[in-house]
Design a protein that fits this description.
With 142 residues, the protein is α+β, with helices and mostly antiparallel strands. It has helices at residues 21-27, 59-71, 87-97, and strands at residues 2-10, 16-19, 34-43, 48-54, 100-106, 109-110, 116-122, 130-140.
């Protein structure tokens, strides 16, 4: 059983949902050696999150952002407001979406479905760089 771990820092992005699947694979080329295993991606922030969803139609990203904003509005009377109007809603959205995703690895590739991709969900208007910890383990070929 092999274990690999890598930290990946993503450049700041605008608020919304951003496909990062290819960045994860590029940051951890050891995936190609794993026959059976899994990759866990963990975000080290409380105002951004990760999710898996459709990767083909950009309308999905728009709809996801619209719905999460309806569920967690910025105009709610939050108590925690020291870091700006979008901060506490970002924390709530991150808790709802989750801080990690786990994907099976099969024959050297992420075993995502045909239309699935891994998203960074940026919930702040100006979130800054985001750090991810990628942990891969599994049985290597050979």
């Amino acid at each position: 059983m092999a274990w690999y771990q890598q930290q990946l820092e993503l450049s700041p992005t605008r608020r919304g949902y951003h496909l990062i699947t290819s960045k994860l694979v590029d940051a951890l080329p050891e995936i190609s050696r794993i026959q059976i295993g899994q990759l866990t991606v963990f975000i080290q922030h409380t105002s951004a999150s990760l999710t898996i969803n459709e990767n083909a139609d950009p309308d999905v990203q728009t709809d996801m952002e619209s719905l999460i904003n309806k569920i967690v509005p910025e105009d709610f009377p939050y108590v925690h407001t020291m870091e700006g109007r979008d901060d506490m809603p970002a924390h709530m959205k991150a808790s709802l979406m989750g801080a990690s995703v786990t994907v099976p690895v099969q024959n050297g590739r992420l075993a995502l479905g045909t239309w699935q991709g891994i998203y960074l969900c940026e919930h702040r208007n100006h979130g800054g760089r985001r750090r991810l910890i990628l942990t891969l383990h599994g049985t290597e070929e050979g």
